[in-house]
Amino acid sequence: MIRLTRFNGGAFYLNATHVEMVESTPDTVITLFTGKKYIVRESAEVVASRIVDFYRQTFPASAAPRVPDDFIE
Fold first, then answer.
1. Helix ranges (DSSP H) in 14-67
2. N or C: which end of the chain has fewer CB within 10 A?
3. Rounded to whole angstroms, how far apart are CA atoms 9 and 12?
């Protein structure tokens, strides 16, 4: 799970394995595979980094998912 901050300042933990997409619109919107969306204070880059760190800690023997080339601006 990764720790994130809602716009009202409240912290919550999100299951990183359920994240389908992270985008800046300019607010950071996280879309889960269920279609549910979260708007958070962290930038898309910070969220992506936390997801990669989660996978590195959870599955150290395997490679972390690669961030698509079109994500890097």
1. 44-58
2. C
3. 10
